[in-house]
Request: fold
Amino acid sequence: MTVRVDASIDLTTDPATAFAAAADLPSQERWVIATRLYPIEGEVSIPQVGSKLAAFTGLMGIGFLDTMVVTEYDPPWRWVMQHYGAFVMGVGIFEITPTANGCRFTWAEELDLPFGVLGRLAWPLVKPIAHFALLACLRRMAKQLGRGSPPLAMAPEALPRDGLPAPEALTPEVTPS
Reply:
């Protein structure tokens, strides 16, 4: 079963700066709570389509590892990652839309629930907590942007599609256990 949770925040900054705070891993680590990000070596560098990264979310060594591959990169508007870990499966989306005073940043997760029936039964309890967590991260980013903290680096232009793998080749094969 695929479910969606999202949160949005209005920012008083330009879309390019907001997008850079998302696409630059050291900047993102400053506002995504209890998460360390690691680029995974490959033919393409983060944040480009085909690049891979891992995120460990947890405290005091207790948590989970989330592995991802970038499937869409359209600066400064949209960055999409396919989660392919053992625990987190689905799609993560960062989307920026312009507003009169800056931009709106939306973080959405479209997840395949783990744990079968138990996961489906627990989702109504987990969803508000997940929404709160996403919103808390976005508020933290807004506060840091207001202080002029992130981004540490501006997001690079998207690479031309020539020579890159076809989008269907970017989703890793996952064998159910």
Summary: The chain has a mean pLDDT of 91. The beta strands are 2-11, 35-40, 52-59, 62-74, 78-84, 89-99, 102-112.
